[in-house]
Amino acid sequence: MQTTRTTPSRLAKRAHYDEVTIHPILDEALFCTVSYTIENQPMAIPTAFARKGDKIYIHGSVGSHFIRTIENGAPVCISVMLTDGLVLAKSAFSHSVNYRSVVIFATAEKVTDETEKMEALALITDHLVPNRWADLRPTTDSEMRKTTVLAFSLAEASAKVRTGGPNDDPEDLTLPTWSGVIPLKTIRLAPVPAEISKAIPLPDYLA
Amino acid sequence: MQTTRTTPSRLAKRAHYDEVTIHPILDEALFCTVSYTIENQPMAIPTAFARKGDKIYIHGSVGSHFIRTIENGAPVCISVMLTDGLVLAKSAFSHSVNYRSVVIFATAEKVTDETEKMEALALITDHLVPNRWADLRPTTDSEMRKTTVLAFSLAEASAKVRTGGPNDDPEDLTLPTWSGVIPLKTIRLAPVPAEISKAIPLPDYLA
């Protein structure tokens, strides 16, 4: 949703407020950074998350100072960035980055419904490793009691996206300097079994 | 430096305060997230940066709301995370992430010395693409006037690092579930020339 604080002061043409842009970025990014404030001091914690509909979920220990600070509705800013490429222009000034980022302004809602809480934990697990949850033993009551799940609305989310090649000043176009894009990609390497799992076949969902 | 706010409430054994741990994380990460506060609302901006000694530099447009908010010494929290692997345990609860993160609490010093400012821009450029700066035409006075460079001390920086395989509860060790690590890596793909640079040989530093 476009609000005063989701409207960028710079390069507003790169801003998007539609879920068709925002949701896939949130679904592709594995981690977000949650920024919050303690007595005017900004703090930031990178953490796993998952989206369902127009909400995202994070989880943490019930004893975490971070979780306890934000669980009662302190304002947070959740940011995600996917970096797709380094954009090399003819001049240093026109160098840029191809990225897809999302910023969410929200306050936490503590998830107290046990079914929604369990589903959120499954979503967070499967967001990192699709189909993992179904392969795991049930989560125990004790584990559930030690875990807080927080939900955040995407109502005040915005995306910013840059794609394409360099935008050089006209007077630089004839310079003999190489220009273009170096694509960046995050990849998963072959799974490395724990010592105790060396005899266990790698599940299909990890192959 | 270990201070009250750089001491984690959780897993303090993963915290580090020495530059031998902190500097390589900052040198490997391409982007940081700068969190700041406007009237108690946390905000966050991902941006490029570079380290020199016990300082990091960022840059931005002189007209950027973000830059103008923090350039006069508002408290910021700068965070960086490198994700090295997804740690799959026998239980959902023991799943984890191998990561190397740095959090810096600091306030901006605006770099007004022209030599230091130019050097910072070179460092930021070469941090993303080593040896790029020397291949570029000189930055003009007009470009310098449009750019603000901010420096932040690493005095109150801390790192948090997790490595290794899953740590399962003893009673889960005999479960038939596969456990181990899925390594994550960010790679650079082959450079893609801009249309106007197709006839220009790829420089050695990009090969």
From TrEMBL, chains A, B:
Looking up Pfam families in the UniProt record yields: Pyridox_ox_2
Q: Does the keyword section mention Oxidoreductase?
A: yes
**Which keywords, in A-to-Z order, does the entry hold?**
Oxidoreductase
Q: Its Enzyme Commission number? A: 1.-.-.-
Cite the GO molecular-function annotations of the record.
Answer: oxidoreductase activity
Which PANTHER family did the record assign? 5-NITROIMIDAZOLE ANTIBIOTICS RESISTANCE PROTEIN, NIMA-FAMILY-RELATED PROTEIN-RELATED, FLAVIN-NUCLEOTIDE-BINDING PROTEIN
Question: Which protein, by its recorded name, is this?
Answer: Pyridoxamine 5'-phosphate oxidase family protein
